[in-house]
Amino acid sequence: MEAFHVGVAAEAFAAGLLAQAGCDVLVQYGANQPEYDLVATRADQEMKVSVKGSQDGGWGLIQNYKSTKVTYVEAAELWARSQSPKIIYCLVQFKDVKFGECPRVYLATVQEIAEWHKASRNGHGGTILWEEHSYSRGAAANVTDRIPPAWRFTEDRLDALLNRLARGWS
Asked: Which residues of 82-111 are buried (b: 16+ CB within 10 A; e: fewer)?
């Protein structure tokens, strides 16, 4: 797929899963809307969702914050500060997904993503949020980064995030 198609398909799958979980889904018109792509509501609970699609195994979320003057940890912290803490990221992965099959989907908070970036590559940090990636050399040789299984989009994960947002992240 072209990058545009990945984005459209990711948003469609995210909206479908949210609707299947009993949420009303409001979609912003057009791709790459500022801050969030969807709003999911259920009862009195509301969640703004930023959808990121990928077909190469990773999501490049913080690379624009990394420079020679900024460490990986600092880049993750800068990225997190630039995001609304009330946004939930929906990560949709099409790598090795055949036509007609469903992609793998994850839900994560800004803080969870920032902490994952800081801990990746054996604690040295990184700019790509890999679904699963093994390093063969350098500081992270023989290390495999994997998205936490708790991030998988499930009804329990969605319920927990909606409840947490409703309580003001307490």
From this structure: ebeeebbbbbbbbeeeeeeeebbbbbbbbe
Q: What is the pLDDT of residues 125-167, one digit of tens each?
A: 999 999 999 999 988 899 999 999 999 999 999 999 999 988 8
Class of domain 3-111+149-166: alpha beta
Domain boundaries, the chain: 3-111+149-166
Identify residue 131 by its one-letter amino acid code. Answer: E
Helix, strand, coil share (%) of the chain residues, nearest 5: 40, 30, 35
| HEC sequence for 46-70 | EEEEEEEEECCCEEECCHHHCECCE
Confidence at residue 32, expressed as pLDDT on a 0 to 100 scale: 62
Q: Evaluate if pTM is beyond 0.85.
A: yes
Q: How confident is the model at residue 29 (pLDDT cuts 50, 70, 90)?
A: confident
